[in-house]
TrEMBL record:
Coiled-coil region(s): none
InterPro entries: Homeodomain-like_sf, InsJ-like_HTH
Residue ranges constituting the Insertion element IS150 protein InsJ-like helix-turn-helix domain according to the UniProt record: 106-142
Matching SUPFAM superfamilies: Homeodomain-like
Protein name: Insertion element IS150 protein InsJ-like helix-turn-helix domain-containing protein
Organism: Chryseobacterium defluvii
């Protein structure tokens, strides 16, 4: 399943992680104290209550909230760009935040460029990624992804 950070269906992400970790349905049912049908119904849900999502995160040992943070970083402009505009208006010194991009975000954006789904300019405009940043990622890892089976380096 390709990551879709714009249209999040949390049930799909949970199901994929549970399958990847090979967690048995019996263990899940015991953990939640629910019947199998209720667990399977959660896989179909586009969104879940935060308490339930927190429990899934603990069970799967995966931060499902990170998916929503990634959405905010990519689509709602929580970046230095908005802060830069505000600082310019007030005359304050601009402060850049380093390392706001998670490995998943970098991987997602570089794959978009490498697979020619988007140009570098489109990524810069749509996601407010500085030009030097995206070019640095591409140059550093010399990404030449040609198919889905090609893996990016772990330290990306």
């Amino acid at each position: 399943m390709e990551a879709d950070f714009k249209n999040i269906h949390i049930g799909n992400y949970i199901k994929k992680q549970i399958e990847q970790e090979e967690i048995s349905i019996d263990r899940i049912c015991n953990f939640f104290k629910l019947k199998e049908e209720e667990i399977l119904r959660m896989y179909e849900e586009k969104s879940l209550d935060t308490d339930v999502l927190l429990r899934w995160s603990k069970l799967a040992e995966y931060d499902f909230f990170r998916i929503y943070v990634t959405h905010l970083l990519l689509y709602d402009g929580i970046s230095h760009t908005k802060n830069s505009r505000k600082a310019k208006q007030t005359g304050d010194k601009i402060v850049f935040r380093k390392n706001i991009y998670t490995r998943e975000i970098r991987e997602f954006l570089v794959k978009l460029v490498a697979s020619k789904q988007k140009t570098v300019v489109e990524v810069m405009q749509e996601y407010n990624i500085p030009r030097t940043t995206i070019y640095k990622w591409i140059r550093k890892y010399e990404i030449t992804l040609t198919n889905e089976n090609t893996q990016l380096p772990k330290d990306l």
